[in-house]
Predict the structure.
Amino acid sequence: MKTIKKIKRMQEISDGLRRNKKTIGFVPTMGFLHKGHLSLIDIANKMSDVTVVSIFVNPTQFGPNEDFGNYPRDLERDKKLLREKGCSILFYPDAKKMYNEGFRTEVYVKGLSKVLCGATRKTHFKGVTTVVAKLFNIVKPDIAVFGQKDAQQAIIIKRMVKDLNYNIKIITGPIIREDDGLAMSSRNIYLTKQQRKDATILYESLKEAKRMISNGEAKASRVIKQMKKMISSKKTARIDYIKAVDTKELKTVKYIKGEVLIAVACYFGRARLIDNIIVNV
Amino acid sequence: MKTIKKIKRMQEISDGLRRNKKTIGFVPTMGFLHKGHLSLIDIANKMSDVTVVSIFVNPTQFGPNEDFGNYPRDLERDKKLLREKGCSILFYPDAKKMYNEGFRTEVYVKGLSKVLCGATRKTHFKGVTTVVAKLFNIVKPDIAVFGQKDAQQAIIIKRMVKDLNYNIKIITGPIIREDDGLAMSSRNIYLTKQQRKDATILYESLKEAKRMISNGEAKASRVIKQMKKMISSKKTARIDYIKAVDTKELKTVKYIKGEVLIAVACYFGRARLIDNIIVNV
């Protein structure tokens, strides 16, 4: 596996691959890789000739009171995992090179970026779309794989790709879970033993939502009320939001009909965890 | 010359060219071509293997009270001129395809977009940077050529390209003028005979500014005062702004030192004309 730090060098490599008719699969990450990331790399490996993984803890997608400084990092462990997965190229740029002096351009997807997680994390998605646009221009992939755990992010990126005419196929990989159902996340490391135990309630509540809907419940408010009750029963949980929204415009729905994203964000101590399911009625 | 309307088709052609190691030169225009545009095509022809010219009167860069509806169009004449120039490909997309249903992404260069022309045309540069980002993703050029008449646009595009890591060299072609000095513009067609005569004062005032500076004048306010006096002497002229700014941050300068952009925007009837010079002291 090659580790590339320089932006220009990465672009040269990608240009060379494309000239040689090799397709490039891309998995952008913030590192501290877990099985969720690795499953996305499997998808990229399967769908393209060469897989590029980026590791970049992007400062601009963290708010001033968020965990940028503490975000877990372990490059050597990540490299080992990537090598084992057969990743061809790790792109590992320097923050000073990504945001050089006088940087002042932003890519923004209106509307979709200010709801759900965007309501709490005001500048988060602007940071995400801007850095992903940059990474797309550097890595020049044919396909890019994002995780379904960040459902809103995947929807926003798909919109950006369509709107800005990036010739890139966006694939969403399913959520990978621990044995007890907790969605894999680099931030799970923040959890104390009690919080870790309590955090399983997120997926339990989503499963209960699914069960209610299968049994004919059509009112979103009833489903959300039940989820709220379950999650609130855990002492270490502090709910940020529980929402049922359509999967295109992310607008709150009153009735569960068609494709609906049920999404939850919840603090356990200093960890802010998210999880979701999509139901199709 | 091929005329390509479909976005996907244009991308396929560009991918094919790049695979065959052909370099692509790109000149984005709004059509109604004049010698200014043609000079940019000459530059693209010289610097690349294949020249792509786009004609797209981009609705999003016009304000609600501006001339989008009346903007001059003459596709057949444009095609003839492009063929004579040896342009290989005309990209001529449909506005409905460029801005499909649910479009909501914007590319914005902060600060630089709200001064000079951006102070009067509040949403203009957001429209420009967004459509140019799209066109870059569709045409995938190696170089792109912009006119120095739109000095602020060229500076903003260069910043966007740097910030978003577009692997594209931006070239600025010099202002092409009529025999009496009026900068070529598709909007000159709006001018009545008297306005056309009066409009030559823009370049006259810029030449006077240059002369003053060559003779040692260092105070921007004195230069601007003299320009204002000259332009105001014409009855049909209504000045929008006259500014002296640095060429990186577009900040107003008090003293003419280093590279300074002297830019003027002025209405003559319904035509809003711009012109500029760069001095280096």
Strands of chain B lie at 2-4, 24-29, 50-55, 89-91, 105-109, 143-147, 169-173, 237-246, 259-268, 271-280. The interface with chain A takes residues 7, 11, 15, 18-19, 21, 100, 102-112, 129-130, 133-134, 137-138, 159-160, 162-167, 248-249 of chain B (CB under 8 Å). The first strand of chain B starts at residue 2 and ends at 4.
